[in-house]
Amino acid sequence: MDDLSDLKLSRRDLLKTGAVAATAAAIPTVATAQAGAPGMPPAPVNPPPSSVKTTLKVNGQRRELTLDTRTTLLDALRENLKLTGTKKGCDQGQCGACTVIVNGRRINSCLSLAIMHDGDEVTTIEGLGAPGKLHPMQAAFVKHDGYQCGYCTPGQICSAVSVLDEIRQGVPSHVTADLNAKPLLSVNELRERMSGNICRCGAYSNIMDAIAEVAGAPVAGMPVAGGKA
């Protein structure tokens, strides 16, 4: 009893000692972790990421790549193929800055793995036009000042090109399009179809003007194509 009376542990010291002991008991040793369950082979501590070969047809050119299976189409374009016109914005499919055209349909390239598009045709902003030979939509964006900082512009243009193709092909949207023998677009229809592309500078009215001009048809609620809103 005399020996016990010499122990002077505060309540805090006692709690600290107990916590350390409990933590040590809960952490398995390296040998235990590698051994795994009885009869099972040891699992690698840090398995290397797997890589696969994939082929993309980008802007009309066949490109063969060896990629980590976790590589997004956006990162494959920017990091592996150095096509940096496609921008990484939110990286969560919310802003549309990374929009590209795959097999004729627009997608958010940050949400799609590159290996999912083996053999697909991918068109980026670089494939639509060049400085000396602009795509009509690129020229219209320049004419109508459809940008300010320009960060969202590649995605806006790729999306706008696809929007007009969708309307011509009769692809439905959540808003009923005013399509007759001669397509009559509406402002609401265009806004709905472009709603996945965010312009934080707020150049939306100029973007609508650019799309209306390239559409080559009257747009309900807007002046004749080529005019200012």
Helices and strands in order, then pairings?
Blueprint: H1 2-5, H2 11-26, H3 30-35, E1 51-58, E2 61-68, H4 73-80, E3 99-102, E4 105-108, E5 121-123, H5 125-128, H6 136-143, H7 153-168, E6 185-186, H8 187-193, H9 204-215, E7 219-220
Parallel strand pairs: 1-5, 6-7
Antiparallel strand pairs: 1-2, 3-4, 3-5
Helix pairs in contact: 6-9
Describe the structure.
With 229 residues, this protein is of the alpha/beta class. The chain folds into two domains: 78 residues, Ubiquitin-like (UB roll), CATH 3.10.20; 98 residues, DNA polymerase, domain 1 (Orthogonal Bundle). Helices cover 35% and strands 14% of the residues. The strands form two sheets. It has a five-stranded mixed sheet, with helices on both faces. The chain has a two-stranded parallel sheet with strand order 6-7. A hairpin with a 2-residue loop joins strand 1 and strand 2. Helix 6 crosses helix 9. The longest helix is centred in the first third of the chain and has 16 residues.
